[in-house]
User: Which sequence fits this backbone?
C-alpha cells in the first residue's frame, strides 16, 4: 500500500488579484489529511486540509489545486462536485465558499456566509445537497440556498425552535421534502414551499441529536449521535431503529447503487436490498491502520479518505488489496523547520509552544524533496525520535543530515536512512535534571556547522548548554551558567556562526549570547542601553548578512549589531533598531513584531518571517520593504511563518507556514566564482510571457550590458549576487521590439567576460 501512484500533475490556471504572477509561486502541500470526497461518473474529487486533488478514473490523470491556484489556506470542511454544471464547491470551516469551474479552472470566492452577522464559530459549512440547480448548504447555524446557474446565494433558513440557529449536519431530498439532520432533531419542509424562511414551515419529526441523513433508492436513512442507523417509516412519519454502529458516525452517503456508512475504524457498504456486501476495518489496511474520515464508490472502486494517510483505494470484490492514490507531498502541512541544499529540501514537523514547551510530543518523521519527488521517512523509522524541530545538512557532505529533537536528542541521517540517535547515553548531550534523575528529556534545537566541519548544537535547560560534535567524532561541552542568569531555566532558539567562528545563540531569557572558542569568551546582548539594547530578552533568530552585520529577531522586534567583528574587539556589544520613514514619520522597522526567522539572500536582502503577519522582504539596509506577503495578497496559506530558507543556486525562497509550504521564485542567488555557468531564461521570450528575463550564474558586481542587434544600448546594470533581471524595456521607457538582443557580461576587474543572446518575440 505504501507504493504510491506517480502521475504528471496538471496545474490549473487561475485569475488572481495578486500583485505577483503566479508563475513565481509554487505549492508543496500535503494531501494526507482527507476531509471530504465527492465524485462524478469518471472522476474522484478529494479535499485535504486546505488543498484539493482529483483523479480521472479512466485516464488516471491527477490534478492538484492549492493556494497557488487560488484556494484559501483555511481549513476545508466540505466538498461537492456538480456533474450537471461541471462545478466543484469547496466549503470551509470559516464559512468561505469557493466555486471552481472545471471547464477553465477559474474560481469564484463567495464570502456571503463569512459576512453574515453571526458568531464566527458557527459559520462552518458541513454539507452540500443539490436539487434542480439549487444547492442547499448545511451550516452550523442553518441552511443557505445557492443557485448553481447564477452563482448567487438565495434564502437562509434558521429552523430551530422559534427560528433559532442550529447546527445542520446534512440535508437530503425525499418524496418532495427537504429533511435536515441537526443537533436538535430532524426537521422537514416541502421543497416547493416558497416560504421556507419561516421556521414554522419546518416540522420536527424526530427529537435528539442527529449526525447524518441521506436518501438511498426508495428509502430514507438517518444516523443519530449514538451511532444508531434509523429508517424512515412514511406511514408513521417517524424514524425506526434499523441497526447500531460500533462507533459514532462520521459520514453517510449514497450512490446510485450503494449506501456507504463510515466511522473512524469501519466502512459499511450496503446494496439496494440493504444487504451488507462489504465491511472494511482499518485493521485490514495492515501497513498503515489509518483513521477513516469518509468513503465513496465509482464503478467497482471504493475510495477511502483517511486522516493521516491520504486516499486509499480498493475494489468492491477484493478484501485484501489496498493502494494509496494520494499525490506525493510532505507528511504534513504544518512544517516547523526546513533546510535547502542545491538540489534538495528537508523538512521536519515537531514543534514547541511560545514558552518552549514541546508537549504534546509530536510523533512525525522527516521529509525530503528532490528531483525524484518526495521521500517521506515515517516516524517508525526515526529511532523513536520525537518533536523534531530543526534540520541541518552537512555542507561538506549533503548525504549527512542532522535533525534536532526538542525531547530526544540529535538524529543523524546518512544516505536518507536514520542511523544514530545521539542522546544522554552515547554522546555529550544531556537530559534536563530538575524533574528528577529518572525523567529523560534531551532538548536540542539550534545547530550549525563551522568551517572546520564541526557541528555546534544548543542543549536547553542544563548547565553545559553549548555542545560541539567535532569532525573527529568527539563531543565537547561548554558551561554557560556564568553567562546565563539561570541556565536550567533557559531555552535556546536558532543559532548562526560568523566568518570569525563566533557562535551566536538566541535564548528566551538572556537575549543573544556570543561565544568564540579561540579566545574562550562568552558575551551577551540583552535589554537595556548598557546591556545591548534589545527590545526584550526573548530572542528567536540571528542571521549574519553579507556585510558582517548581525540581524537579531526577537518576540518584540528587530535589532542590528553593526559588525560581528566587535565581539573580538569590544567589551560591550550594542544593537540598533532600523528607523524608517513612513508617511513622513520616523518609525521602527517591524516594531514589536514577533520575528520567527531571518534569511539573507544573494543580494543581501533580508527575508523576515513573523508569527502572525506573513513575510517581509527588505533591502540590505532595511530601509525599503520590497514585498510584504500575506494571505490576502499572495498564495501564502497562513500568516504564521515557521521557517524560511533559500536555495542559493536557484534563488527559490521556501516559506514554511502553519498551513503549508510554498516557494517564491526570487532572483537573488548566491554569486558564482566565474562566468562559466551563466544562462538566460526564458529564452526565447514568447508573446504570452509577461515576466522579466533572468540572467543567472553571475559573479558578484558583474557588469551587464544589453544591446539590440545594431549595438544600441537598452539596459545596463551592476549585479548584486548571482542573478539580475531585465524587464525587456529600454531603460524603463518602452518595451523593446521583437528581435535578438546581445548580453555582454564582464567581471568587476574586466578580466573575465561572457556574451549571451536572447530572442524576444512580441
Assistant:
Amino acid at each position: 500500500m505504501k507504493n504510491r501512484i506517480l502521475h504528471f500533475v496538471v496545474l490549473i490556471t487561475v485569475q488572481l488579484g495578486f500583485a505577483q504572477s503566479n508563475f513565481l509561486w509554487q505549492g508543496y502541500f500535503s494531501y494526507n489529511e482527507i476531509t471530504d470526497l465527492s465524485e462524478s461518473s469518471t472522476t474522484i474529487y478529494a479535499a485535504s486540509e486546505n488543498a484539493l486533488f482529483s483523479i480521472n478514473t479512466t485516464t488516471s490523470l491527477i490534478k492538484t489545486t492549492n493556494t497557488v491556484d487560488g484556494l484559501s489556506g483555511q481549513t476545508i470542511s466540505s466538498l461537492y462536485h456538480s456533474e450537471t454544471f461541471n462545478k466543484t464547491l469547496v466549503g470551509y470551516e470559516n464559512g468561505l465558499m469557493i466555486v471552481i469551474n472545471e471547464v477553465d479552472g477559474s474560481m469564484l470566492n463567495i464570502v456571503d456566509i463569512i459576512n453574515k452577522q453571526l458568531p464566527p464559530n458557527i459559520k462552518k459549512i458541513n454539507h452540500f445537497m443539490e436539487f434542480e440547480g439549487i444547492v442547499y448548504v448545511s451550516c452550523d447555524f442553518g441552511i443557505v440556498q445557492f443557485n448553481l446557474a447564477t452563482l448567487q446565494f438565495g434564502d437562509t433558513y434558521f429552523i430551530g425552535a422559534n427560528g433559532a440557529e442550529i447546527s445542520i449536519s446534512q440535508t437530503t431530498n425525499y418524496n418532495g421534502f427537504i429533511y435536515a439532520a441537526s443537533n436538535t432533531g430532524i426537521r422537514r419542509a416541502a421543497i416547493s414551499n416558497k416560504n421556507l424562511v419561516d421556521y414554522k414551515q419546518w416540522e420536527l419529526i424526530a427529537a435528539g441529536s442527529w449526525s447524518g441523513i441521506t436518501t438511498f433508492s426508495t428509502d430514507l436513512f438517518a444516523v443519530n449521535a449514538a451511532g444508531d442507523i434509523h429508517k424512515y417509516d412514511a406511514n408513521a412519519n417517524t424514524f425506526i431503529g434499523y441497526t447500531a454502529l460500533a462507533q459514532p458516525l462520521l459520514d453517510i452517503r449514497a450512490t446510485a447503487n450503494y449506501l456507504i456508512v463510515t466511522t473512524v475504524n469501519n466502512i459499511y457498504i450496503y446494496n439496494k436490498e440493504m444487504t451488507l456486501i462489504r465491511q472494511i476495518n482499518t485493521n485490514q489496511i495492515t501497513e498503515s491502520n489509518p483513521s477513516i474520515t469518509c468513503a465513496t464508490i465509482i464503478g467497482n472502486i471504493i475510495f477511502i479518505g483517511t486522516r493521516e494517510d491520504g486516499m486509499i483505494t480498493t475494489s468492491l470484490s477484493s478484501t485484501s488489496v489496498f493502494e494509496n492514490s494520494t499525490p506525493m507531498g510532505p507528511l504534513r502541512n504544518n512544517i516547523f523547520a526546513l533546510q535547502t541544499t542545491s538540489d534538495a529540501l528537508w523538512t521536519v514537523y515537531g514543534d514547541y509552544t511560545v514558552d518552549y514547551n514541546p508537549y504534546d510530543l509530536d510523533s512525525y518523521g522527516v521529509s525530503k524533496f528532490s528531483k525524484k519527488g518526495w521521500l517521506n521517512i515515517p516516524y517508525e523509522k526515526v529511532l523513536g525520535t520525537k518533536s523534531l524541530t530543526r534540520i541541518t545538512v552537512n555542507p561538506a557532505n549533503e548525504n549527512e543530515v542532522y535533525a534536532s529533537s526538542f525531547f530526544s536528542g540529535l538524529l543523524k541521517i546518512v544516505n536518507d536512512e536514520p542511523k544514530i540517535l545521539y542522546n544522554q547515553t552515547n554522546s555529550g548531550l544531556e537530559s534536563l535534571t530538575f524533574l528528577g534523575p529518572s525523567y529523560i528529556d534531551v532538548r536540542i534545537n539550534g545547530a550549525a556547522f563551522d568551517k572546520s566541519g564541526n557541528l555546534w548544537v544548543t542543549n536547553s535547560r542544563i548547565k553545559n548548554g553549548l555542545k560541539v560534535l567535532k569532525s573527529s567524532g568527539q563531543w565537547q561541552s561548554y558551561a554557560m551558567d556564568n553567562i546565563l542568569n539561570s541556565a536550567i531555566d533557559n531555552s535556546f532558539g536558532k543559532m548562526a556562526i560568523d566568518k570569525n567562528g563566533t557562535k551566536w545563540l538566541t535564548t528566551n531569557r538572556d537575549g543573544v549570547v556570543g561565544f568564540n572558542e579561540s579566545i574562550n569568551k562568552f558575551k551577551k546582548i540583552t535589554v537595556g542601553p548598557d546591556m545591548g539594547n534589545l527590545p526584550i530578552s526573548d530572542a528567536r533568530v540571528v542571521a549574519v548578512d553579507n556585510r558582517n552585520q548581525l540581524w537579531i529577531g526577537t518576540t518584540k522586534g528587530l535589532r542590528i549589531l553593526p559588525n560581528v567583528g566587535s565581539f573580538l574587539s569590544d567589551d560591550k556589544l550594542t544593537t540598533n533598531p532600523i528607523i524608517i520613514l513612513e508617511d513622513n514619520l520616523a518609525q521602527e522597522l517591524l516594531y514589536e513584531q514577533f520575528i520567527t526567522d531571518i534569511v539573507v539572500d544573494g543580494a543581501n536582502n533580508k527575508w523576515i518571517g513573523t508569527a502572525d503577519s506573513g513575510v517581509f522582504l527588505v533591502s540590505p539596509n532595511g530601509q525599503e520593504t520590497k514585498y510584504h506577503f500575506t494571505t490576502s495578497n499572495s498564495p501564502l496559506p497562513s500568516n504564521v511563518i515557521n521557517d524560511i530558507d533559500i536555495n542559493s543556486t536557484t534563488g527559490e525562497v521556501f516559506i514554511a507556514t502553519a498551513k503549508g509550504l510554498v516557494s517564491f521564485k526570487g532572483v537573488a542567488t548566491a554569486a558564482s566564482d566565474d562566468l562559466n555557468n551563466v544562462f538566460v531564461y526564458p529564452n526565447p521570450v514568447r508573446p504570452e510571457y509577461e515576466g522579466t528575463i533572468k540572467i543567472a550564474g553571475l559573479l558578484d558586481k558583474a557588469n551587464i550590458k544589453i544591446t539590440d542587434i545594431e549595438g544600441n544600448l537598452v539596459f545596463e546594470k551592476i549585479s548584486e549576487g548571482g542573478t539580475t533581471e531585465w524587464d525587456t524595456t529600454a531603460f524603463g521607457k518602452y518595451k523593446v521590439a521583437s528581435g535578438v538582443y546581445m548580453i555582454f557580461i564582464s567581471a568587476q576587474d574586466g578580466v573575465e567576460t561572457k556574451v549571451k543572446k536572447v530572442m524576444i518575440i512580441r
